[in-house]
Write a structure and sequence with these properties.
Length: 127
């Protein structure tokens, strides 16, 4: 079955950086067939879209709150998507989830409705 495993979360001071990774396995087609997204959920808040990358890495979409600070990339040879987070702010504190859109080679970068989710990794930014 499809599995997504996130790593790289932790505690960092405001202005610091973290790099999250998401590794996928159990896919029907090769990893480079699928769009991947990251979302986050802070305590007491709904899950919100952060960023997504299309199947070949040629197209990305960012939430306004992270534009210019976060960068998504993918290494299809390693079934991995990474999220570089710079200039972190206390309001970035949340559990971060990667998600996979199981429609192969889709042209639409979704902000919701992903089919598979990882277990999440905690990011805490202290002020």
């Amino acid at each position: 079955q499809v599995q997504l495993v996130e790593s790289g979360g932790g505690l960092v001071q405001a202005g610091g950086s973290l790099r999250l990774s998401c590794v996928a396995s159990g896919l029907t087609f090769a990893f480079n067939y699928y769009n991947i997204g990251w979302s986050r959920q802070a305590p007491g808040k709904e899950r919100e879209f952060v960023v997504a990358i299309n199947w070949n890495g040629g197209h990305t979409s960012y939430a306004d709150s992270v534009k210019g600070r976060f960068t998504i990339s993918r290494d299809n040879a390693k079934n991995t998507v990474s999220l570089q987070m710079n200039d972190l702010k206390p309001e970035d504190t949340a559990v971060y989830y990667c998600a996979l859109d199981y429609r192969p080679l889709t042209a639409v970068l979704a902000t919701s409705g992903y089919d598979f989710w990882g277990q999440g990794t905690q990011v805490t930014v202290s002020s």
